[in-house]
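Sample intake sheet
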Amino acid sequence: MPQASTRRRNPAASLEETLCIELVRTADLLSRAPARLLREKNLSPEQYNVLRILRGSPAGLLCGDIASRMITHDPDITRLLDRLEKRGLIRRFRLDSDRRRVKACILPPGLAILARLDEPVRRTHRDQLGHLAPTRLRQMLDMLRACRPTSP
């Protein structure tokens, strides 16, 4: 006799709840391989995200602007930046015009790490999602963006 599925379905769950659960499961699954790759460079996904954000703004960004651009919310951006600065990957400085405001910029060693990671990260994402046609990928992007509110 075939064994019954061990995963129980909640018949009372709404379609929205089911979708949210599936999105979280999928995000978790898709985040594992890139996280392993980053661990090899002693980086967390959040640290990698900060480095990429700063690479896109060579003149640097205010710490609050970095926090607002993060993929995932990190309540302790200061500690995250502390770790990157201690490793010599970024530099922080206070603005002369307003000493309370702190700006961060990426340093050459941070750029070098990103350069070494660019292709392996792209390859990982291709391995994960390359089986989907570009049309399907665009549809998924549109649908996911439609799920997010337009303002925080």
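Comment: The domain at 18-124 is CATH 1.10.10.10 (Arc Repressor Mutant, subunit A). Residues 15-39 form the longest helix (25 residues).
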